[in-house]
Amino acid sequence: MKQFWRTMLRSPSGIIGLIILVLAIVIAVAGPFYFPNSPWRMVQRPFVPPFTVAKVPLGTDALGRDVLAGLIFGARVSLLVGLVSTLVALVVGVPLGAIAGYFGGRIDDALMRFTEFFQTIPSFALAIVLVAILQPSIYSIVAAIGLVSWPPVARLVRGEVLSLRTREYVQAAIVTGQSNAWIIWREILPNALSPVIVLASLMVATAILLESSLSFLGLGDPNLISWGYMVGAGRTVIRQAWWITVFPGVAILLSVLGLNLIGEGLNDALNPRLSREGR
Amino acid sequence: MPHGDSSRVGALDALQRIETVGKFIMLKRVLLGVAIGCVLSAAHAEEPKSGGVVNAVIQPEPPGLMLAMVQNGPTQMVSGNIFEGLLRYSPKLEPLPGLAESWTISPDAKVYTFKLKPGVTWHDGKPFTSADVLFSIEMLKQTHARARNNLVMVDKVEAPDDLTVVFTLKEPFGPFIGIFEVGSMPMVPKHLYEGTDFKTNPNNNAPIGTGPFMFKEWQKGSFIRMVKNPNYHEKGKPYLDEVYWQIIPDAAARAVAFETGKVDVLPGGSIENFDVPRVSKLPGACVTGAGWEFFSPISWMWLNLRNPILANKKVRQAIMYAIDRDFAKDVIWNGLGKVATGPSASTIKFYTDDVPKYPYDPAKAKALLKEAGYKGEKIRMLPLAYGETWQRWGEAVKQNLQDVGMTIETIATDVPGGNQKIMEWDYDLAFTYLYQYGDPALGVSRNYITSAIAKGQLFNNVEGYSNPEVDRLFAEGATAPTDAKRKEAYEKVQKILVEDVPVAWLLELQFPTITKCKVKNLITTGVGVNDGFRDAWLDK
Fold first, then answer.
1. For residue A138, which phi and psi values (nearest 5 degrees)?
2. Nearest partner of B111 among B143, B150, B153, judged by Cα
3. Most A-contacting residue of B334, B389, B392 (CB-CB within 10 A), to test interface
């Protein structure tokens, strides 16, 4: 573990990514204590440019709502959706991949065809359809993003399991008569985890982007403010008020960038060959 | 305001400011003219000039142009200049001569006699006579739902001679004089439609009317072109040679088309509200809120009275106090429109502002909610999915209501989904706006009388309000023989309704028409652009 952190912290991208992510989490968790007001509240006159009124440092939007408050509350939604929907994707994808890879044969065929069925549908289009059918809400958005993001997980896990299954220690476990579930859970999955972790960090970034895109198109949860919603709502007045779209846009950019850098750092740290080189 | 509707002045600070700018620019141009030695007096400048082509935006593309068959907003706007009605209406909704040059109403208010204008011809040269009027009425009863309703009180229609039409009513019906507008009762050529299948008649694609402009061509998805009717029955009119209705599907592109000079007229609703101030300030742009008096759209939130919380009058009044309607007007509608005082728009007949008032007063709203015993139960709100403006409005109202302690959940939906929910009464609060058609009997009573409650309709009494006294007063208002009696009934009913708050009235909406200032005299009636090109002219 110590080794992991050392490698992680040695790569500059990992450090930058971590800093950005920690900052975003701190803002999302602690920010609302400094802004007890709802981000939907109209606090100032509309279209106050940034850096002119101390009370609303990043200006106000078309209704006079505080852009900074929107950013802070939006961070909650974006991070939450990113994390939870990735969790959903993992919960669906990891068992499916593991079962397919472990048992092989017909089960593998059936599960992989099923996975491919999902992979052939463009994921964003599917997400839009799902959210539109289920009515936009935070739950339907998380479900839709989870549902369109699990196939790569399943395929990745299957590949890992396929190669691990032929290892001697797995064979030994089978010979000693342990149950399949036990072998998958205790012997195989822990060893297949590192690429999944890297993938998951990238999936969080993708999920944040997906959520932003959905909100941008007006398919966000109407009761929650999110960065994508802010960009979408400000888009039409971009000629009069650039700041309404630019700040949340930058927030999306930074958090996605941060997560990608972390993914890279994780890859370096978890890849046994690379981390040994660092020794 | 250019057309002198005093009741609107004051509601339009922003507009007036913009107009002042426009006038200043015009003045500068005149001064320049004088300076370089042109003989150009201000009076002379207002003399109509003939000739020229005007490009107007039509949004969205109309589904058809046969006004007797299709009555969409855009159809009315284009075809109102091709067809004509018996009467036209001033911005104050007084009847003006149209195809009828004069009319008399019998003392018992049951017999309406119209004298038609002599020498009027259809675009194909055939004369227009009383036989066309009789035929039009029969045809409209089959094809035009609103006309059918308007004509319910008619006992018989007769034509004693070629230029006289006599309507006899079953009983007096006060709003009757208000139903002859071109979109409500367009005159159709008998010689082309009699005995044919109205739906498949080839003339539907190239409509023939009596109006100042003749339909010329329609390039689907691109433009509709109409040309001057050289034999129009008003001598010297129309002044313009041609009008192109440009079809541009994207709101931003429409604004750009105006900026670049590709179009000269942006009818109300062509561009998004937030773009209105910017586009209005462009050099050579003039803007007016006039020309919607006949429709007088008024917006409100349906309150579902079947919900036990909203069934409590105090909760409904609290909602009225909680909503900052001035904010909505100034910020969301960019200063356009007027805070609604009650069920009638201030521009229609028998309006009174002598009703209980609901200023923005969150403290009072909180107190009322407390009295009503409201404990934060969840209320669902259905915004109107008509674009940016309505979405922002939903957000602002939600915040207003949450500020006084209500728990509001916004239901995200599209237009058909939202309509469905309203029709099935599956909502608590729902945004809407409705036309009023100039008279409480035509556009207001339908939303509050018991007999208009029915599942499966998007308008009428969706909230489920039922009050025998209100029913009685509306009936009395519709059939009272004199305007004084009608006024009395309607003023009473407005007071009762405003006290009861069956729906939460928001704003009288205004859809500004933006034109190049060189387009003159476009909006002269209560339906604005819909029959405006008759008098419009181009200052070159």
1. -60, -35
2. B153
3. B392
Note whether B279 and B69 are within 8 A (CB).
Answer: no
At B246, phi and psi to the nearest 5?
-85, 135
B485-536 pLDDT tens trace: 999 999 999 999 999 999 999 999 988 999 999 999 999 999 999 999 999 9
CB-CB under 8 Å, A218 with B402: no
State the pLDDT at residue A275.
Answer: 53
Please tell me the predicted confidence (pLDDT) of residue B1: 28
Question: Hey, are the CB atoms on A63 and B395 less than 8 Å from each other?
Answer: yes
User: In this complex, do A233 and B396 lie within 8 Å of one another by their Cβ atoms?
Assistant: no
Which residue in A37, A40, A60 has the most chain B C-beta atoms within 10 A of its own C-beta, making it the best mutation to test that interface? A40
Q: Tell me the average pLDDT across B241-259.
A: 91
Least confident of A239-248, B25-34, B356-365: B25-34
**A201–chain B nearest CA distance, Å:** 30
Query: Rounded mean pLDDT of A168-193?
Result: 90
Query: Which of chain A's residues have a Cβ under 8 Å away from the Cβ of B398?
Result: 40
Q: Taking a C-beta distance cutoff of 8 angstroms, is the pair B511, B269 a contact?
A: yes
Tokens at A98, concatenated: 């593991």
Q: Collect all residues from B whose CB is shorter than 8 A from any CB in A.
A: 252, 272, 274, 278, 327, 331-332, 383, 388, 391-392, 394-396, 398-399, 402-403, 409-414
**Residues sharing a CB contact under 8 Å with residue A36, sequence separation 6 or more, in sequence order:** none
- Return the number of CB contacts < 8 Å for A and B: 52
CA distance A91 to chain B (A): 28
Give chain A's largest Cα–Cα span.
Answer: 74
Are B65 and B220 within 8 A, CB to CB? no
Mean pLDDT of B182-202: 93
* C-beta of residue B453 within 8 angstroms of C-beta of residue B461: yes
pLDDT score for A269 = 83
3-state SS assignment for residue B540: coil
Q: How confident is the model at residue A13 (pLDDT cuts 50, 70, 90)?
A: confident
Q: Are the beta carbons of B117 and B101 closer than 8 angstroms?
A: yes
Which residue among A38, A221, A239 sits closest to B402, beta carbon to beta carbon? A38
**Residue B14 pLDDT level (bands cut at 50, 70, 90):** very low
CB atoms inside a 10 Å sphere around CB A254: 14
Q: Which of B278, B399, B411 sits opposite A38 (nearest CB)?
A: B399
Does the global pTM surpass 0.90? no
Of A201, A238, A31, A18, the closest CA to residue B272 belongs to A238
Give the helix/strand (H/E) hosting A152.
helix A138-165
User: Can you tell me the distance from the alpha carbon of B340 to that of B143, in angstroms, rounded to the nearest whole number?
Assistant: 33
Mean pLDDT (chain A, rounded): 90
B-chain residue closest to A232, CA distance = B388
Mean pLDDT, residues B392-416 taken together: 92
**Measured at the alpha carbon of residue A92, what is the angle toward residues A89 and A94, in degrees to the nearest 5?**
95
Give how far A232 is from chain B: nearest CA, Å.
Answer: 10
State the ipTM, two decimals.
0.84
**Of A116, A115, A140, A114, nearest in space to A128 by CA:** A140
Neighbours of A97 (CB within 10 A): 29
Q: What span, in angstroms and rounded, lies between the C-alpha atoms of A69 and A53? A: 14
Strands (E), B407-499: 407-410, 429-434
Q: Which candidate, A121, A127, A84, A143, places its Cα nearest to that of A217?
A: A127
pLDDT in tens, A200-209: 999 999 999 9
Three-state DSSP class for residue B434: strand
Chain A residues near residue B252 by CB distance under 8 angstroms? 236
CB contact under 8 A, A62 and B392: yes
CB contact under 8 A, B396 and A240: no
**Residues B516, B476: contact at Cβ < 8 Å?**
no
